[in-house]
């Protein structure tokens, strides 16, 4: 079968010859949420002329919108909780809430979205760059979140006595396992003699998903703590504002976790 198109010399990148298709490339049937090796078109082709903008399918446009909505929701909850905490006198600031929100909600979600096809920020990145961004964000998120939990543990006299606290403890325990599995997944090629890479990565995917689920569940129940009731806006005493934040947390969870779930579904362990 012959490919239709033309060859052009790219004078910018070491006079490489690129093949330009006449027809748009067929869509891969592979699950691009996880196996998307970025289709970074050369910025310029031919005689320095800019490349035509890639045509996006309706699904891709929808994914961009969904990721954007997710970021706005994460931003809303993060900004609200940080503002709620940081406007207090310095001795009253609940650093636990600030650190846990920044680490678990903001950075961890962003880390999970690093591989998304619909993520405009990583569109031009290749797979190794996405992997690097993923582990850097996850590591930073985990450290900041763990600092938040440790701060609370130092302040509390009675430990893990609420639904929020118990789920938070479970998050902390599984987070360590998740970090270890992430390390083993990072060195999957080196460990292939001992652990099959696909099994290694799928295991990391499952443990990571459990960690994120527990973190979001703990976040969900944080809106019923006394601290939230005391320091939040007056509106929070009305059930509808709390209800709004709970619904937003569920939406964030679904929109963030669907990528890893999609990978899991396609990895066929
Ligand atoms: C995903 C994010 C979060 C995680 C993983 C988390 C984790 C935890 C853990 C493990 C504890 C138990 C500490 C102990 O008893 O020694 C705790 C307690 C507490 N957290 Fe969080 N937290 C998160 C977010 C928040 C937020 C956003 C708030 C405030 C709005 C908050 C408010 C509290 C309060 C008031 C306590 C003490 C009372 C209780 O145990 O329910 N947390 N948290």
TrEMBL record:
Pfam families: Cytochrom_B561 (PF03188). SMART domains: B561. Residues 65-264 form the Cytochrome b561 domain. Its cofactor is heme b. It is found in: Membrane. The chain crosses the membrane at residues 68-87, 93-115, 135-153, 165-190, 202-223, 243-265. One of its GO terms (molecular function) is transmembrane monodehydroascorbate reductase activity. Signal peptide: none annotated. GO terms for cellular component: membrane. It is an enzyme of class 7 (translocase). Its EC number is 7.2.1.3. PANTHER family: ASCORBATE FERRIREDUCTASE (TRANSMEMBRANE), OS05G0565100 PROTEIN. This is ascorbate ferrireductase (transmembrane). It comes from Bactrocera dorsalis. The lineage of its organism: Eukaryota, Metazoa, Ecdysozoa, Arthropoda, Hexapoda. The gene is LOC105232458.
């Amino acid at each position: 079968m012959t490919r239709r198109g033309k060859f052009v010399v790219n004078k910018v990148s070491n006079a490489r010859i690129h093949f330009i298709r006449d027809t748009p490339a067929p869509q891969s049937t592979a699950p691009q949420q996880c196996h998307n090796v970025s289709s970074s078109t050369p910025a310029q082709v031919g005689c320095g002329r800019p490349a035509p903008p890639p045509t996006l399918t309706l699904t891709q446009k929808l994914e961009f919108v969904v990721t954007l909505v997710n970021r706005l929701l994460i931003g809303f909850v993060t900004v609200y909780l940080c503002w709620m905490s940081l406007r207090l006198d310095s001795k009253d600031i609940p650093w636990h809430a600030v650190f846990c929100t920044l680490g678990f909600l903001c950075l961890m979600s962003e880390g999970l979205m690093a591989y998304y096809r619909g993520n405009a920020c990583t569109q031009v990145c290749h797979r190794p760059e996405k992997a690097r961004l993923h582990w850097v964000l996850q590591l930073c998120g985990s450290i900041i979140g763990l600092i938040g939990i440790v701060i609370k543990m130092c302040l509390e006299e009675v430990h893990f006595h609420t639904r929020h606290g118990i789920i938070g403890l479970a998050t902390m325990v599984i987070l360590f396992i998740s970090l270890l599995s992430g390390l083993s997944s990072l060195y999957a090629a080196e460990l292939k003699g001992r652990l099959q890479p696909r099994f290694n990565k799928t295991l990391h995917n499952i443990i990571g998903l459990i960690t994120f689920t527990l973190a979001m569940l703990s976040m969900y129940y944080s809106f019923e703590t006394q601290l939230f009731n005391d320091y939040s806006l007056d509106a929070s005493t009305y059930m509808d504002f709390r209800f709004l934040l709970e619904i937003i947390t569920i939406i964030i969870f679904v929109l963030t976790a669907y990528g890893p779930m999609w990978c899991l579904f396609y990895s066929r362990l």
